[in-house]
Amino acid sequence: MLHAIGFDKVYERAEGAYLYDADGQRYADFLAGFGVFGVGRNHPVVRQALHDMLDAELADMVQFQCGLLPGLLAERLLAKADGMDRVYFCNSGTEAVEAALKFARYATGRSRILYCDHAFHGLTVGSLSVNGSAEFRRGFDPLLPDGCVPFGDLDALERELRAGDVAALIAEPVQGKGAHVAPQGYLAAAAKLLHDHGALLIADEVQTGIGRTGRFFGYQHDDVEPDIVTVAKALSGGFAPVGATLAKSWIFEKVYSSMDRVLVHDSTFGSNAAAMTAGLATLAVVEDEQLVTNAEQTGKLLRDALQDMVEEYELLIDVRGRGLIIGLEFGKPRSLKLRTGWNMLSAARRGLFAQMVVVALFEKHRILTQVSGDFMDVIKLLPPLTITETEVNLFRDAFADVMKDAHKGSGLMWDFGRTLVRQAVAR
Ligand SMILES: Cc1ncc(COP(=O)(O)O)c(C=O)c1O
Prior knowledge:
Elements: E1 11-15, E2 18-21, E3 26-29, H1 32-35, H2 44-55, H3 68-79, E4 86-90, H4 93-108, E5 112-116, H5 125-128, H6 134-137, E6 146-149, H7 154-161, E7 166-171, H8 186-196, E8 200-204, E9 228-231, E10 243-247, H9 249-255, H10 273-288, H11 291-312, E11 316-322, E12 325-330, H12 336-348, H13 352-365, E13 367-368, E14 370-371, E15 378-381, H14 389-406, H15 412-426
Parallel strand pairs: 3-13, 5-6, 5-7, 7-8, 8-9
Antiparallel strand pairs: 1-2, 2-3, 4-10, 9-10, 11-12, 12-15, 14-15
Helix pairs in contact: 2-10, 3-10, 4-9, 7-8, 11-14, 12-15, 13-14, 13-15
Bound molecules: pyridoxal-5'-phosphate.
């Protein structure tokens, strides 16, 4: 797959928002390792903290101990999350979600978890049970008892809740697949409905957390206090895998209710010193460099610049997002000249036009992006939160050039489109 789309590069070095290949060519990273590199790549403060941690020869993973580093990191995370009291540390986003699902089920004594269409919460079995895309779930049934509701639809949520068996709704404040933003007020209204029916709200902040949307947590755009919050990706500083599940005290107290239950949900590597150190250093960088504010302001600058192109380029139909998670959606053009090419790509496989744009951005302008999900004509921008006007302008100019080429309806870009069609049909 990497070869087919020309992504089979070997990178030798990385710094901030840029990757460098063996020939010294520079690539702008608007993918950030699926959101891991919020503070940019190889940030010197995080690196130094990890060097210091190694040199300190700590007594790590004793297991039966009161660790200082997890305590400090939990304290810093909780300071950003009003209403949350406790933190469970693990090693990835999907593990943070698994903990959230188990905690919600145990605390409510109910089994069913609701999720939204297009949702993505990870790929282990529990997380897969709340995945909103059939292509991920196919072949892995039976999964956990679940229920899917349209993202933003409160009536559908209420209908599901009436059954009385729902433990929680899990939702992303901005969905990673498609970069759909939760309608204003949705999470707050959903929380009220859930609580009225004895169920919980889990905010999955694995991708949106640690400043990505221009707030520390994405749910903070709404006037809402979730019951459980999951974090991972950017907390790692791009170095040490980490996940965290934040929740209210009463939930932890139910799950870990007695001496017999202290290990009822646990992970050997959770709270290891490397992950905790990277997390602490990352939060320090986010604060010192005011990256949450930067994500909000730079994100707006980038979205506004791209929004201006919707009028000009008929293939571009929507620009959406929050902070520095941005979706660019393409759609069927009006003019006959472009419609033939569009139909050819769409008939072979939905999403091929977006793939063609991703490849053109990469090959011609050395900018790394991704199609935002299978069968979607949406590309997603997820750059480090450290980017400035320089990268905004770089992307704006490159994207305008690619759109210009695409609107010619012929040429190299469409030739490559035909190659993609041949590959899709050959499958
Ligand atoms: C919202 C969300 N939740 C959970 C996950 C799973 O995280 P991980 O890949 O670390 O297991 C992801 C990963 O993309 C995600 O975007």
